[in-house]
Amino acid sequence: MDNINILKVTLNDIDQLQKIGKQTFEETFSESNSEVNMKTYLEEGFSIQKLTTELNDKNSEFYFATFENEVIGYLKINFGASQTELKDSKSLEIERIYVSKEFHGKSVGQLLYDKAIQIAKQKNVDYVWLGVWEENPRAISFYKKNGFVEFDKHIFKLGNDEQTDIMMKLKLTN
After folding, report:
1. Per-residue pLDDT reduced to its tens digit, 154-169
2. CA dist., res. 20 & res. 102, Å (int)
3. Would the pTM of this model clear 0.90, i.e. be above it?
4. Please, are residues 93 and 129 in contact by the beta-carbon 8 Å criterion?
5. Is 110 exposed, middle or buried (0-12, 13-18, 19+ CB in 10 A)?
6. Beta 4-8 vs 91-99: how paired, if at all?
7. Which residues are part of the catalytic machinery?
């Protein structure tokens, strides 16, 4: 798809970030989770306070994918101590890649992913890692197609539901 731009998110974009974050998380996971757990997670995980803290973190970055000035997806990456688990100075974590459902299959996720890999190479990290829900075969397939391999599992809590994420990594050759 042509005319998709990848733009760094700033504090001025917080309302759009909250909107696309809630929308895409709900589209992706609402069918597989209880309404109560979804509501709680969306309120806490995408609160203005939490997003402000994340946007002010020098070791985290957000990027929007836009089409005709509309935000259609986003990426969140973390470095160093801001990574959710490994906290390895020689790695970069892709914490989130979400794309609006109407733009699935149009390579928007690939463009966001490519941006993460470009930044990882600029930062000269050894590998990129992420966690993906074991019941999200579409995402698992996407990362495997891009060369990621499974190396561990961890628990992700959505409300009172404990879910297993598959941890995957990609070694970079500089």
Report:
1. 888 877 888 899 999 9
2. 13
3. yes
4. yes
5. middle
6. unpaired
7. 143
